[in-house]
Amino acid sequence: xxxxxxxxxxxxxxxxxxxxxxxxxxxxxxxxxxxxxxxxxxxxxxxxxxxxxxxxxxxxxxxxxxxxxxxxxxxxxxxxxxxxxxxxxxxxxxxxxxxxxxxxxxxxxxxxxxxxxxxxxxxxxxxxxxxxxxxxxxxxxxxxxxxxxxxxxxxxxxxxxxxxxxxxxxxxxxxxxxxxxxxxxxxxxxxxxxxxxxxxxxxxxxxxxxxxxxxxxxxxxxxxxxxx
Length: 228
Hints:
Layout: H1 8-25, H2 30-33, H3 37-47, H4 53-66, H5 70-74, H6 78-85, H7 93-108, H8 116-120, H9 127-136, H10 147-157, H11 171-180, H12 186-199, H13 218-221
Helix pairs in contact: 1-12, 3-4, 3-9, 6-7
């Protein structure tokens, strides 16, 4: 995975440009304004393979209002929980959510663990979600890499080849994303990057002219050629 690495000066400029953009364009979600580990875990679980954000916010609010702690969720009636999740077309996740809550009760005394391995061991929680919880809820300097961020990295650094099917498990991409994070500011950096990918650095027809970090981007320098 050959890359054109940024100088330290360029990396700082990229970080500052991204933070400035995020301050004006960051999205506002309820799990961001009150980022408890439980709230972020529920949100990230619902966000898996979900693109309908407006419905997701409604479903998220109903879940945390009805089941405000893992103990409430562990005792949820499965049919009621399925009905709440149904607008997302993901009724099967009701059992996953309840199983996850039960695991939190049995193994972690009802608390969301602040440990990557223990998070990944929870039912239905993979590498990306575990890293997102550590970064967005606990403030750990932890990179997060989903398909959209992987695409950003491929474009930014002119990486060759096709996007991996599960980028959250690709050590080279995780390490590359980790190099970009300013120490102590991983939460906002990761949120900014997620929002940039959702609104500007899209899979189709990326809005390069609106991108705050385009001066550092190999994809933009090549006119959008030879990158995913």
